[in-house]
Amino acid sequence: MEEAAESLNSVFRKVKSVNDGEILASCYYLNQIGEMINDYSHLYDFLRWLYKLAWEELRSSTASIVRLLHALCQMSHDTLMYTLRIGYLRSIHCLQMVVRSTHHLTILSMWVNYVKHWNKHETHHDVLAAKYDQLLRETRNRDPPDLKQEIAVLHGFSYFSYYSLKNDTLSMRLLVEMLDKCGQFLEDKNEYEWSFETQAFAFASKATAMLFEKKASHLAGSYLEKAILILERGDRECRTRAVALIEELILWCERTERHNQVESLREKQNFLLCSLL
Question: Which domain of life is it from (predicted)?
Fold first, then answer.
């Protein structure tokens, strides 16, 4: 129960204002919880909290966002989710019109999230993959090179390939390339701070390990070990991710009968957990 309460509180903490981009993602997350427990009261509590937040910020019952949130609070669940889905879709279309591009990184990321969360039976994965591939080629050809942008595109493309396309061959190629680019970004740093690049590194390390476990299980652990060695020397968020990756490494050791390594890994994990207190 404490973990569930903390998860719900984390949703509220993420949203700083009624214009926050986390709102739709938070609504979807709370809807998933509602589906699991057959109770959507947390979702409606969140919307009522947003309505209160909007009223306190704007002090106007006629402001568009205040009226919208008030209307959402009154809707049935099915109507609410349909409205949120259409709202997210419209936001993608509006942004496409503003930037005049269909393969802008932000737009592609929004489409991937839409397909993943709101339209799981989407059949146009090949179109998104082609747009990502086009953007990746354009990014690689930049002069001078933009390492951060390459990592960002590789992260988006590999995330889409790994979770939506479920294309192991493409995912492996993109993930290995992203690990190389992240390595270039991290190699000159003495201290590591949590950033998009370290997040991409952590994701690529875990996903690569999971893919290797399918075909060459003995290699999987090395990717987790390398990521842990780097992240455990970072700031609080880096160490938090290191703790999670140690848990993945322990599970891998148990699956591959490397039981003699588990105790030392638990000790390292506990040491890092103490550093987070």
Answer: Eukaryota
